[in-house]
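INFO batch 0412 | record 1 of 1 | parsing
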Amino acid sequence: MIRDFKWSEREKKIARRAYDRAYEKECAGILNEVKQMMEGTKDPRDIWKVEDYLDKKRMETNAKYDYRYSVLILVFGKLMQDGLIEEKDLSGLDQDKIERIKAIGSDPRLR
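INFO prediction complete | emitting tokens
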């Protein structure tokens, strides 16, 4: 069960920074994958495979990244599980929030 956490202005800035960094890491990984897919290809039709991949990644990314404060603890937990956020990225958040994020991030049911 998720509590309705309150976010101070300072915590909102920390959360936004961590969220944006995670999103940038995710997008950089997608870009690298696209580059690998296209590297050495000789068939121009392979671009449609890239399009399919990008469509899939867009849907996954849109589902994963939600900056509403009511779900941000869950989002951060999943991002931690995916290796896109580390505890140090959350430094400055209330310890209760960090502990809940870590608990969600280590929950094997979310894999």
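INFO post-check: The helical segments are 9-38, 47-64, 72-81, 95-105.
INFO record closed
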